């Protein structure tokens, strides 16, 4: 049983050795040619399309329009009602005409409703900006994930193509007795497994790309993503200054709180004196040639309801916004900002270290090991171990790049503004 396991590891070592040469010789170039016909779509192109054409953007705009329409309804009184009656000459009746005008009003129309409407419009504007920023972030995350799948496909495709080229040589070596027949069969199975894994990965990438373009409202096409860049991180002083603008998450919470307070103020104002209707009646007697003006007032008495339902809803919303803002008080927000800023700096520094230091060192180790292997001073197991480490390092670098992108998104969400993530 142990002997068979060693044999499998040995063949895997041969396969990794081939993968090493594949990345250094023609395999990678062949893999890259498979994408030559695909168009490269920069992140900003997809974001711009999403902001202009995506269904999510249309939904956000519709919600903003609905909020503005609600604000107009809140501050605008109901239309006045006009009624006229005319009396013609009949028996002892006199000729005359009566004009009646009524204007339904609420006490909250004198002050609170206007403030409530203004707060609603301001909050709707901030909500729109926050949701648009979330659209940008959703597209950015999806784009970065697509790039990760694309890079994995490049590497795996190179390995598969080169493995196919070497499979015939191994089969011939097995016939000549230089390689065990079972080992050749295992190599063939491994090559088929890699090819199937490539097919699965390619399908996953295509589905991810289709989902991304659908989010952006773009036509479906095969495309290439650009490698994420790691721009300089703004200073904490700059971040703190940006966090004090009206687009920050704290400013949005404050706006929601102000809106809830104004809604509650309207509900309280209408609780004791809910609705009243001033009336003016103008009567004209043509026979007597006299005119009479009567003024009146119709009042809705708060007997069965004192605006209780709206008071309950407004108070619940006020409590929720108060607690949300309290949970992110000034000191807590500063600490959250500092933690997000440090995370961005750390992930960016780590990703750059992998790219500039760690990967080049392992590439050097790989070249030395290959040279020793060609000279008979290193075994295939040495190559397999180096290749395994190289693969881990490549995956770790990719993960750190994606973490750096996510860290910048987290910081942008807090300050409510975009910074360059990919170019």
Provide the helix percentage. Answer: 55-70%
Total number of helical segments? 11
Biggest beta sheet summary: 4 strands, antiparallel
Structural class category: alpha+beta
CATH class: Mainly Alpha
So what's the overall shape?
elongated
- Measured between the Cα atoms of the first and last residue, the distance is 54 Å
What is the CATH architecture annotation? Up-down Bundle
Account of the protein in words:
By secondary structure, the chain is of the alpha+beta class. The protein has one domain: Outer membrane efflux proteins (OEP) (Up-down Bundle), CATH 1.20.1600.10. It is built from 11 helices and 6 strands. The protein has helices at residues 2-24, 26-33, 43-53, 55-75, 112-175, 181-216, 236-243, 249-272, 308-327, 330-374, 380-415; strands at residues 39-40, 81-87, 96-102, 223-224, 275-285, 290-300. Strand 2 and strand 3 form a beta hairpin. It starts with a helix and ends in an 8-residue tail after the last helix. The model is unreliable at 1-34 (pLDDT under 50).
């Amino acid at each position: 049983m142990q002997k068979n396991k060693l044999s499998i590891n040995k063949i895997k070592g041969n396969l990794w050795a081939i993968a090493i040469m594949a990345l250094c010789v023609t395999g990678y170039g062949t893999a890259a040619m498979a994408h030559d016909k695909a168009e490269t779509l920069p992140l900003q192109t997809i974001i711009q399309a999403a902001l202009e054409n995506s269904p999510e953007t249309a939904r956000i705009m519709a919600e903003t329009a609905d909020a503005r329409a609600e604000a107009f309804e809140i501050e605008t009184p109901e239309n006045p009602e006009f009624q006229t009656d005319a009396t013609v000459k009949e028996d002892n009746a006199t000729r005359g005409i009566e004009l009646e005008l009524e204007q339904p009003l609420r006490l909250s129309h004198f002050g609170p409703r206007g403030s409530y409407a203004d707060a609603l419009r301001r909050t709707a504007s901030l909500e729109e900006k926050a949701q648009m920023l979330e659209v940008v972030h959703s597209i950015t995350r999806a784009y970065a994930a697509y790039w990760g799948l694309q890079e994995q496909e490049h590497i795996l495709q190179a390995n598969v193509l080169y493995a196919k080229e070497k499979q015939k040589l191994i089969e011939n070596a097995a016939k000549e007795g230089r390689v065990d027949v079972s080992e050749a069969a295992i190599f063939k199975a491994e090559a088929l497994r890699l090819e199937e894994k490539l097919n699965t990965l390619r399908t996953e990438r295509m589905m991810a790309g289709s989902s991304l373009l659908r989010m952006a409202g773009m036509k479906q096409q095969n495309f290439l993503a650009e490698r994420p860049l790691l721009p300089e991180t703004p200073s904490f002083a700059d971040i703190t200054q940006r966090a004090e603008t009206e687009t920050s998450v704290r400013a949005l919470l404050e706006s929601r709180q102000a809106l809830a307070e104004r809604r509650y103020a309207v509900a309280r104002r209408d609780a004791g004196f809910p609705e009243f209707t001033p009336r003016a009646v103008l009567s004209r007697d043509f026979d007597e040639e006299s005119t009479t003006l009567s003024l009146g007032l119709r009042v809705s008495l708060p007997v069965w309801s004192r605006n209780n339902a709206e008071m309950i809803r407004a108070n619940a919303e006020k409590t929720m916004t108060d607690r949300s803002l309290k949970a992110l008080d000034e000191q807590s927000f500063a600490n959250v900002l500092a933690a997000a800023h440090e995370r961005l700096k750390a992930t960016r520094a780590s990703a750059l270290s992998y790219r500039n230091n760690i990967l080049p060192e392992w590439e050097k180790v790989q070249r030395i090991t290959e040279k020793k292997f060609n000279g008979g001073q290193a075994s295939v197991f040495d190559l397999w171990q180096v290749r395994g480490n190289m693969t881990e390092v490549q995956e770790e670098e990719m993960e750190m790049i994606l973490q750096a992108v996510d860290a910048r998104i987290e910081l942008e969400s807090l300050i409510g503004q975009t910074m360059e993530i990919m170019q």
